[in-house]
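Reply to dn_fold:

You asked what the input looked like. This is it:
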Amino acid sequence: MGELVDFFVRSRNFILFVLLEVLCFYFIINTSNYWSVTYFNTSNRYAAQVLAWSNAANEYTSLRQVNADLALENQRLNAQLTKLLQSKPVAPAEYMADSAFADRFKFTAAKVVDNTTQFANNYITIDKGTDDGIRPGMGVISPTGVVGKVKVCNRHFSVITSILHSEFLVSSQLVKAKDIGSAKWDGGDPHLIKLNDISRYKPVSKGDSVVTSEYNSTFPPGILVGRVYSVGVQPNMTFHDITLNLATNFSTLSYVYVVENRLQGEQEQLEKQIENEK
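and this is what came back:
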């Protein structure tokens, strides 16, 4: 207490000066319309700027929650869209998928906690594991396209084999040409991928979309893989040399959706039984 009193005694001249300055400003503002308006306009401008900074800071700190909410909303919309597409009649016109087949895909949102793109064989780690119903073999997609397939899991984490892996293949279909091939990364640019096994006699357009095909039990059909970046034909080859721009940007990947095909085990068991009988 004594130190506080000593401080006021030592600073009494400065404190008196500040009080007099405040008093002067008070009288100037209250006795002059011009200075009163100027003061309030200036104070409002600075107050608005401080409020804008405060709102920007609050919005930035809440981005994580906003992104998580958007991921959950996209998960719900993906499930609804896939169910709608799978139940849609296709040729022949009288065909209609049953409810179990149309509703066979389940989506689980997960956050990416580790991701590589610089190696020949790249992997992604997510924050969901067996406690969340994740198991090896499930497909993984992003809001924009194919990501990879679950390789191993523990209770709380899973490691995904990225599409940027030298041994990863995706059965893919050209939307316009309707031809089916295999998308495979060549280990080069992480933004580009090759589409193999497309006959050179099939017309392929630059910019055509390439999506997952119907002959795929891991991914729902129609998930974007990429778009045709370049088309060429090597001498004495029967297939096009097609390069795609990948739909998923792995350098900014934050959230993914793990896809469970509830009927995959049943399908694979039956197909394996047929193979064993051959």
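Residues 89-98 have pLDDT under 50 and may be disordered.
Hope that clears it up.
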